[in-house]
Each structure stands twice: as C-alpha cells, then as structure tokens.
Amino acid sequence: MNVFLKNKYFRTFSIAEILSGAGDSLFYLALITYASKLNNYSLALSLIAISEALPKVFNSIAGYYADKTKNKFKYIILLSLFRFVLYSVIGILFAKNIASWNLVIIAIIVNLVSDSMGAYSNGLQMPLIVNLVNKDEIGEATGFNGGISEIITMLAQFMGAGLLLVMSYSGLAWINAVTFLLAGILFLTVKVQYTGANKQLPEQEINEQGFFKTFATSLKQIKKSKGLLTITIILALLNGIIGTVEPILSIVVASARNSMIILSYSFTIALVGAAESCGIILGSILGPQIFKKVSIFRITLLSAITSVATVIAILTKNIFLSLIVLLFLGIFIGTISPKMMQWLVSTVDQNILASSMGALNTILIISAPLMTSIITTIASANINLALYTLLGASLVILGIVIKVVVARPNEKL
After folding, report:
1. Residue 108: which CATH number?
2. What is the per-residue burial (b if ≥16 Cβ within 10 Å, else e) of 31-61?
3. Which residue in 17, 184, 339, 380 has a CA-CA distance of 20 to 30 Å to 406?
4. Mean pLDDT per 10-residue run, the chain (413 residues)?
5. What is the pTM of this model?
6. Is residue 138 part of a domain?
C-alpha cells in the first residue's frame, strides 16, 4: 500500500493495469451470459473456457519476446490501443443482426487474440515495475496490484451483471474497449511524466539468447533456489483443478437453472468470481501475516484439501456451499502468490526476468487449459461424468501433495 501511495509513477502504472483487467471481466461475463442462452450452451461455454485458458500456455513465448523488446513502454501502449480496436469491432458486431453462433465464434477468436496479447503485455510490464519501485518493494508492489486487481475485477463482474439488465451486449463490449483505451493513455502518461521529470527511462538489458536457451537458463536459475521448482510443479498440478472449477461451475449452474441461480444467471456467475476474488484479496493482504510461520508447502496442502471440498460442493449442487469453499480456496492462493513473486525476483537475472516469469507461469498454468479442455469437453456430453472425473483428479493431486509435504517436515519457505 505504501509503495502505491508514495510512488506516483507506480500508482499510475497500476491503475492502467487494473483498468485492463476490469474491462476483461465485464466482457467475459457478457459473453458467457449470451452463450448460456444458446441451444447447445454447454458447448459454447466450454469453448469460451478453453479460449480463456489457452493464452496462458503462451506465457513462456510471450515472456521471451518481452525480454527481447527494447522499447517496452511503446509496445505496452500500442497493445492497449490495438485491444481497444478489437473490442470496438465486437461492439459493432453485437449491434448487428448476426447469427448467434457466428457471433460467439467471432467473439471467442477475438478474446483469444486479445488475451494472447495480454500475456505479452504482462511480460513487458514486470521489468518496468522492477525499475519503477525499489527492489525490496517488488513483493509489496505485486501483492498490492494483485489484491486491488481482484477487488476491481469483482466489482466489475457485479457491475456487468447489473448493466446487463439495462444495457445491451454491444454496450458492454464498448465499455470493455474504452478501458483499454484509458489504460493506453495512462501508460503513455507514466512515460511522459517520467521523462518530464528529467529522468531517463530505465535502460533494459536485452536478452540475446535463443528461446530454448533462454528457457533452459530460466529453469536453471529457478532450480538454484531450493524448493522453488518443486513448489511450482505442485502448484501446477493444483492449478489444473482450480482453473477448471469456475468454467465447470458455470455449466452446472446453467444446467441446474433455478435450483442454483441467485437472482439471475449473470449475478450467480458474478458471485462465483467474487467468492474466489474476495479470498485472493484476503490472502494477499492478510495471508503473509496469518501464515507467517507456515511454509508454502503446507499452505499448498490446505489448498489441495480445499479444492477437493470445492468439487464435492459442486457435486451436491449447493451454490452457497460452493461459494464458501471457493472463498477459502482463494485465501490460500492469495497467500502463496506474492511470496513466490518476491522469491523469483530475488533468484533470477533481471535481463531474463520476463522469460523466467513466463517459464514459471507456464509450468504453473500449463495443466489448467489442458484440464479445462478435457473436463469441459466431457461436460458438454455428460456433466456428472465430468464432475466425478474432476473429483478423481483432485484426490490424486491431494495424495501427491501429502507425499511431498511429509518428505519435507521442516521446510521453512
């Protein structure tokens, strides 16, 4: 919080990041609400879930090219403006009389392209944040950004649910486009303010290695820090379950209709996102203090147990129980993230920081799109089979985590 209040460059930069996330949340909610009204809604929702998860696989490639980019501010601004154009087109198409499935397919493709650009933009941003704040403030800065982003995302989802009652899908797409435009303007403002204060923009050492050599170097540096790679692999397995929970729940709610809906479908999905977001916020802000003497491995064990409980809650088709366990799952996730980021920044060389982040994130989330694709594909044919498959996978992962934690009884991380 202090770094946000005291550092005006970081403050403006953070607001720009947050605006982008808020717009994405609005559009995602509008898209799945629109898709839930189609005849084959389970297939449409499955495709949307896959399009959301797939770009995360490209984190390593995006991070690699981000490290090779010289004028990072320039490309961050251009990417924001291009995403503004993309969603402006979607706003126009929603206003036209286009067949529902054609519109959904176009929107999914645009969302996939935009999120892939977002992965590259995130890779460009992290090295700049490292230079805008002191090195010992990286954990605080990223933790604060994560917590505030979750708050804004949660509010945006509820706002989207409310706006859908009085506004068209086209209108929400336009709001989404405008947030990217505002983000681009704010990124430009940071650049102008920084140079206007007679300061030189930080010189970034450019990574000249090839992709595979960079990836290997990143992994080698990550492995140097005892336990970092191990916990990353464990969390990757767990993320396969966590990443599937929200999309599968959106399908379950759509199939259950009145028995699980609170006020409206869009409001219910907003509550689902809000439950996990509130948990992440609480975990990011209070977790480091509450779990100060608890190792990351043991917090991961708590996450694994809670993920099993989440799937069981969904199986019972109890929306209130599902929301409660999602809240606790978010708390444990939020507790782990900032510490891992601080750990990474203190471990790797800065000229391959984005590549290392990409490598770490790729390992962390590679299972999420795979699991999401498999489970949601099964769900499009048989929702109960998909849920029991997810439960079986979560139990297997819990067993693996227990085995690793037992092997590290005195781990201090």
Report:
1. 1.20.1250.20
2. bbbbbbeeeebbbbbbbbbbbbbbbbbbbbb
3. 339
4. 70 80 74 83 81 71 74 87 92 83 89 84 76 66 67 70 77 87 89 68 56 65 67 76 82 78 82 82 75 78 90 90 90 76 61 58 69 83 88 89 72 50
5. 0.64
6. yes
